[in-house]
């Protein structure tokens, strides 16, 4: 779909404008998502990458309006399938959940109800937006879905309980539930994190397969760059509640511009081949209670400029699809050779 | 295939029944020996105050007549022998066949305790769900606090206040007995006599269980599968009733099974205050005054109720949550582990 940075279809299924999500905690107000703007186009897979606690999951839950009670959308706007859903009521959201967007969660071991046969749980999702369906129709649909996500002997397993299934199989069930009402948007929140490595690959291939078959646009949240390269059309890199770099997979992997992205890339095991130690990014992510006023990554950034500590960098445009938030891209910044990609990052454009 | 299953079920039931019988035998041994080894004089319950004025010879004679001078194991064997033939002995206090004494009162207690038990748990479930829906709201806080306070009021005091208000001042309801004189068959008379004791029985236990259900539900609402259910598009109500309540039912049922003895003996204080002729009072007295035969029968009744309750509870819980299955009956479809 993405070729040379050009996209064939440009319809935005999700548009997030300046979204901020805050949490109220005993220690203070946590700014979990800070001023994030993002769009998801028809038929694409957008990967959201970042370390634990950078606000990836919160952003997804904000889209579905599944935030916990102590969290609220401070500002910003979410448009899904042409409809502004920022201020929709719970009742209206229920109509969209499952049909417009649905979600796959991190831990398949706990995301199924242990006391209900999985066939029934999938059927519940099938019937959610189709009350008129007859009994045998809905059962057939469940069996089809189970086939689709690669559960063999679906008829036999219709009455099985989640505890009869392994983690990978349960994640397949969760996917069947998510796909039950043909959602336009699928949000996969680290769907392979809780699975072991061999199963991860299977589930990823399955996700990609289904995505191509059904044509669902997908937001794919992960902290594993290897996974990103495998499935994503575009990548958004998040740090401390903000998007620091966004671009096509090609651009992010071959021409990363933000020092944080460099750090992520260099900490891939492949980069340390033949070396004694794995590369790491020094330090810790900042607390999101009263986050730093400049670039949140500056204290851990070997390339940080003075201005990074003072002022929040805006998103600098590199190409039409590639943006990054670092002062290194400013005209006045010193020229630096990127540690990966090997390009002078501040070429005159 | 089908025959095999029937065979399996029969074997399973036979096993359960034989285990229950062994448990009851064990219980009877325990109660029999413990009651006899406890200090106190059983003749007091038979002769009342006169027991103290009996001469040693008369005492000896009385003990022999009641069969209490033998060694305890021999007494037990005799008791079992008689019990198997349907003779549970006489009550020392009432000088009547034990079963006859209990017969008239058991039904009263079963009405008060049984209905009270069902109402307690029904209301507790409803109240728990109600509060869980409105978690941390003002109403929830009020209910929880009022509950804590009222559950701290002692039963006898609460009973007395109710009698004072409804019987003495308002003259609406009778203050004692299970029915008006000579109207043991009248449902209306029974009902009016039941209202006040029932209120005490229900209210004194209600909050404890309701609070527990509320907390269990709140724990359940925070599970991951609720999030998935929400993302399917299910409403809060559907999630609560179809998923959460269903999942706490096994825990709820096992608590019900454990508290079954309350039906028979938990109503003791209420029966005392309202002079309600039930077996709560009987069992207390029989233990206190060494009315051995009475005590044995009451303990056995309680034991049987508990064993039946536990088995039924286990069966229902297994039906709801198949992970709890301990029995050997494993359906063939369940072997499809992957």
Verbal overview:
The complex is a heterodimer of chains A (about 350) and B (about 350). Chain A is of the alpha/beta class and about 350 residues long. Chain A has two domains: about 10-230, P-loop containing nucleotide triphosphate hydrolases (Rossmann fold, 3-Layer(aba) Sandwich); about 265-330, no CATH class. In chain A, about 30% of the residues lie in helices and about 25% in strands. Chain A has helices at about 55-65, 90-95, 120-130, 135-150, 155, 165-180, 195-215, 225-230, 250-255, 260-265, 305-310; strands at about 1-5, 5, 10-25, 30-40, 45-50, 70-80, 85, 100-105, 185-190, 215-220, 235-240, 240-250, 315, 325. In chain A, strand 1 and strand 2 form a beta hairpin. In chain A, about 45% of the residues are buried. Mean pLDDT of chain A is about 85; it is low at about 1-10 and about 345-349. Chain B has a domain at about 100-290: MetI-like (MetI-like fold). Helix content of chain B is about 75%, strand content about 0%. A two-stranded antiparallel sheet of chain B has the order 1-2. In chain B, strand 1 (about 90) and strand 2 (about 95) form a beta hairpin. The two termini of chain B are about 25 Å apart. The model of chain B is unreliable at about 325-338 (pLDDT under 50). The chains are: A alpha/beta (about 350), B mainly alpha (about 350). The interface of A and B includes residues 90, 91, 103, 166 and 177 of A.
Portion of residues in beta strands of chain B equals under 5%
- Which residues of chain A sit in consecutive blocks of at least 5 with pLDDT less than 50? 1-8, 345-349
Placed side by side, the strands forming the largest sheet of chain B appear as 1-2
The total strand number of chain A stands at 14
Major pleated sheet of chain A:
8 strands, mixed
Q: Tell the overall outline of chain B.
A: globular
Please identify the structural class of chain A as seen in this structure. Answer: alpha/beta
Question: What fraction of the residues of chain A are assigned to beta strands by DSSP?
Answer: 15-25%
State the major sheet of chain B: 2 strands, antiparallel
